[in-house]
Amino acid sequence: MPKEFSRSARVAEQIKRELAELIRLEVKDPRVGFISLTDVELTPDYAHAKVYFTSMNGEEGLESILIGLKRASGFLRRELRRRVRIHTTPELHFVYDNSIIEGNRLSALIDEAIATDRAHEPEDDASPEGQDSQA
């Protein structure tokens, strides 16, 4: 039987969903428009939440996005208090998540290494493709 999610994980997921909706529909700051929330980590006492986000523009304009998020954090926290019923509404700390960009960079490096290996392989015209030359 699969292990159930902890209450903390469920609350973090709910906070992520609510924040994503609030940012998309309620925050009017254009600096914050093209972001996607990737994760929320809560402290055990729910006093602080690290909200990880990525930007559609990569790291371009990251400073202004962080300023916009910081300005909106009071509004977002107040709205979270109304939507999520927990004893403490966490203080929001926004953190840029570069894992998608890093993943793309690593994927490109792997593709480049594979292409280099294929370029250096000797072509074997004697054996048909898909068959092993050893019996």
Describe this structure in words.
The chain is an alpha+beta fold and about 140 residues long. The protein is built from three helices and three strands. It has one domain (about 5-120): GMP Synthetase, Chain A, domain 3, CATH 3.30.300.20. The chain has helices spanning about 5-25, 60-85, 100-120; strands at about 35-40, 50-55, 90-95. Strands 1-2-3 form a three-stranded mixed beta sheet. Helix 1 packs across helix 2. The radius of gyration is 23 Å and the shape is elongated.
Provide the descriptors you would attach to this structure in a database record.
3-stranded mixed sheet; 135 residues; alpha+beta; GMP Synthetase, Chain A, domain 3; 3 helices; elongated
Give me a quick take on this structure.
The protein is of the alpha+beta class and 135 residues long. It has helices spanning 7-25, 62-83, 99-120, and strands at residues 35-42, 48-55, 91-96.
